[in-house]
Amino acid sequence: MAGKIKKFFIYLGLTLWAFIVLFPFYWMILSSVKSYSSYNRDYVPKFFTASPTMQNYADAFSAVPLARYLLNTLFFTVATTLIMLVVITLAAFAFARLDFAGKNTVFALFLALMMIPQELVVITNFVTITNLNLRNTFTGLILPSVTSVFYIYLLKENFEQVGDDLYKASKVDGTSDLRYLMRVLIPICRPTMITIVILKVIECWNSFVWPRLITDKQEYYLVSNGIQQIRENGFGRENIPAMMAAVVIISLPLIILFLVFRDKIMEGVATGGTKG
Amino acid sequence: MVKTGKLKGWLYLLPAILFLGVFMLYPLFDVFIYSFEEGYNFATQSFFGTGIYNYSYVLRDPYFIQALKNTFIIVIITVPLSTLVALFISLGLSSIKPLRELYQTVYFLPYVTNTLAVGLVFMILFKKTAYSDGLVNMLINLFGGESVDFITGPYAAKMFVMCFYTIWVVLPFKILILTSALASVPKVYYSAAQVDGTRPWRIFYKITLPMISPMIFYLVITGFIGAFKAYSDEVALFGTDLNSAGMNTIVGYIYDMLYGNSGGYPSYASAAAIILFVIVLTITLINLMVSKGLGSRS
User: Fold this and answer.
1) Is B19's CB within 8 Å of A10's CB?
2) B6:A113 CB<8 A
3) Are B132 and A43 in contact (CB under 8 A)?
4) Taking the complete model, does pTM exceed 0.95, yes or no?
5) Which of residues 230-249 of A touch B (CB under 8 A)?
6) Nearest to B31 among A121, A257, A265 (CB)
7) pLDDT: is B123 or A46 the higher one?
8) What spatial distance separates the first Cα and last Cα of chain B, rounded to whole Å?
9) B218 with B177: CB under 8 angstroms?
């Protein structure tokens, strides 16, 4: 009996928090399908709407360049992730498999760089990109975030777990290092690479600070900057339903990604996540 | 053959070294240099002296003092509270079977959502406008309270929303880490304790807590570091002009000095960034010492 009561309170508490987590999502969807007039008529907000409308979604795309923001973010995310994959794979391979003087020193130096907070280097990077005339370009947006010491480290550890035998065998066969990397190592280590890709995609999709420093033209805004722009002067400040429609559109891609790759993402964040 | 082999290693490393060199290592030295260059002019790239003036300017700037105060309040409230709530939720999660996966999925959602976007929803829930007092005020009225403007109103109200939203944002990570830590405690210990008839509270205190304490310390340390760098969540709730909202943070102060209407002062920004770095480093070292001390005692 006491056990049952305890269970009840556990479920009650868990449900309460689940409710607090989900409620903002419910509210954003609800507000996004209320018509402008009915939203503003409710002095006391209502928890449902009798006549949902899709008009706000149309407004979100026509009144502000939301499609542009989405495309920019997509391009930024894909380009950054791809370039980063090449850079970190090559580096991880060098650390894991190749022999050269100074390797350990360089690796130690890399690890030391892991402790440097972004806030400390962002000032100079801002000046560098400005001086190179790369503000309001994708190059300027992408370049500073295409390396990650942590991912190099993660991948190197994974590469090292693949036995020496395969490498030696491929050497005997006369396979080149690059071919061995592409044909053997990468396929074997695919799970780790997928984890890295997913984490990087989440990071890119939500990045706000660097794009804000580097872009002041709407043509180059990413979704985070776009939503900030919408909040401050899109739609006329009071059109909250249209704002919420934009918020839904921006949030949806990652929520879908999460629901599809749930286990992969949670496992990846547990090993490599930092937010929080 | 041997020679090309040596070169090859460096060749594979070249892109990484190049990017890290330009965007990590060089800026690291540069930020110190900037912070000692007095009166640095961004347009002409000249300065008229070296010294510690930038530091003393920043430390006397009322906006920085405000940012420092805000950041410390956010850290002191959200880090212990979020860790504690995450611990309770994880304990709850690990003691149930049905629906567990569903709860875990729901709890993790905030991690993958855009903080700027969801922040806007929080703003609307809490904001009091001419058209509507907002949902939260409706609840307050329901219990007989007066409406409060949480977004542009009194400082305590703004700080409450700020901390609430911060906790909402950081909990997924903490719940995830603590749930997996709890799952990795060997079942044998619990069975043995049950055979001995140990009381549940004692089991928690003597078995569970010591087993997961390394992870709790890890969360506290990363929590401190993360909370000291609070910025995006503040923008999400109060907009980009955090100084006039009185809700700026240290990181926000750095960016405001660098860019925007009040920007163009990389020297002040650098000094503030180094002050932040020193604070974070000190707190982290204290944390490590405390965790070492507690660890060796048990």
Assistant:
1) no
2) no
3) yes
4) no
5) 231-232, 238, 240, 243-244, 247
6) A121
7) B123
8) 56
9) yes
Phi, psi dihedrals of residue B231, rounded to the nearest 5°: -160, -55
Q: Which CATH number fits domain B69-297: 1.10.3720.10, 3.40.50.2300, 3.10.100.10, 2.60.40.10?
A: 1.10.3720.10
Which residue in chain A is spatially nearest to B82 when comparing CA positions? A276
Residue-wise pLDDT tens digits, B61-82? 999 999 999 999 999 999 999 9
Give the domain ranges of chain B: 69-297
**At B247, which amino acid appears?**
M
ipTM score assigned to the predicted complex: 0.91
Whole-number pLDDT of residue A237: 59
CATH architecture assignment, domain A54-272: Orthogonal Bundle (1.10)
Tell me: the pLDDT tens digits for B215-263? 999 999 999 999 999 999 999 999 888 998 999 999 999 999 988 777 7
Q: A198 to chain B: which residues are within 8 Å by CB?
A: none
End-to-end alpha carbon distance in chain A: 38
Q: List the 46-85 stretch of A: residues with Cβ below 8 A of B.
A: none
List CB contacts (< 8 A) between B269 and chain A.
Answer: 123
Query: Measured between CB atoms, does A227 come within 8 Å of chain B?
Result: yes
Residue A276 pLDDT: 37
Inform me whether the C-beta atom of residue A8 falls under 8 Å from chain B C-beta atoms.
no
Distance between CA A14 and CA A8 in Å, rounded?
10
Q: How many residues does chain B have?
A: 298
